[in-house]
Amino acid sequence: DPSRINSAGIEGAPVPVGGGRTLYFTSRLRAPADPNGVWVGARREGLSEPGSDSRPVERTYRTSLTDGVWRPRELVVFPCLAGLAVVRVTWLDRDDTACLVTEMEPEGGYWIGRSERDSVGDSWGELQRLTGLGEGQPRDAVFLAGSRTKLVFSDSLEGNPSTDLLLLDPEVSETPQMLTPPINTAASEWGPRVGPANELFFVRGDRQFMVDGGAVRSVAIPARHRAVMTQAAPTTDGKWVFLCVPHYTPVELDNDIYVAPWVGENRLGVPVPVDDWRP
């Protein structure tokens, strides 16, 4: 149902704004179980089935919760980016007028850009490519709380297939610095997000973690056994956490967005599908 946020396709990268009543998220179609079958998911604007020699297209959408209803999903458009395989918003300021975006070229290769606009009703300006992030594959950048110069992002370096988290702090170094263990490990660390008190949320493999007060803690949703959740993104008031839960389907996981109350420390309450969430 294209009128809903979650679909049979793959939704992810939730970025809540304004306590969660405005939400940016990504969507792409999911590969069919039958190689000759139809790709699965809502046919949103900007999405199309990939060809035999092309990548699935991932796009960012914006929606808002008004009078108890999620308004129609709007494709987030930036100038001159129609040919990119991935356009993924990963950070927004409180006013919804500045953002960081991950892009991937059709032939591969990630880069990070920044865009601004004067007000919410205006179009986004041209993406300005961030420099000084090294020669790797930078993606999924977020500014630290209260800063517009210090940012954390994930990258795969020197041909390493796994990703690590890096910090760029211009006051300390002109080049990004790898975050030390126990944050970075031999597994892939990805999906950084920053909480209102500068907590760092990130995913290791398929497990959600956070760094608070220098300690690395796992973050989980209530379940008798470990339930997989990823891409935790807290609201700016710290009351809610948007997250992703995979459903096991053939070929690819059907990823959906959920919302859970923030209980405290590293604990979440029972999550509900974002389409059913009413704060």
Name the descriptors.
5-stranded antiparallel sheet
Q: Kindly state the percentage of residues in helix.
A: under 10%
Mean of all residue-level pLDDT scores: 93
Q: What assembly state would you assign to the polypeptide chains in this entry?
A: single chain
Q: What's the story with the biggest beta sheet?
A: 5 strands, antiparallel
SSE series: EEEEEEEEEEEEEEEEEEEEEE
The 3D shape can be described as globular
Q: Rg from C-alpha positions? A: 18 Å
Q: Assess the beta-strand content as a share of residues.
A: 35-45%
Low-confidence stretches: none
Structural category is mainly beta
Distance between the termini: 23 Å
Q: Find the count of extended strands (DSSP E, 2+ residues).
A: 22
Question: Helical stretch count?
Answer: 0
What's this entry about, in short?
This protein has about 280 residues and is mainly beta.
Characterise the protein shown here.
With 279 residues, the protein is mostly beta strands. 0% of the residues lie in helices and 42% in strands. It has strands at 10-17, 22-28, 59-66, 69-70, 74-75, 86-92, 98-104, 110-116, 128-129, 139-143, 151-155, 164-168, 177-178, 189-194, 200-204, 207-212, 215-218, 230-234, 240-247, 254-264, 267-268, 272-273. Strands 1, 2, 3, 4 and 5 form a 5-stranded antiparallel beta sheet that branches. Strands 18, 19, 20, 21 and 22 form a 5-stranded antiparallel beta sheet that branches. The two termini are 23 Å apart. 37% of the residues are buried. The mean pLDDT is 93.
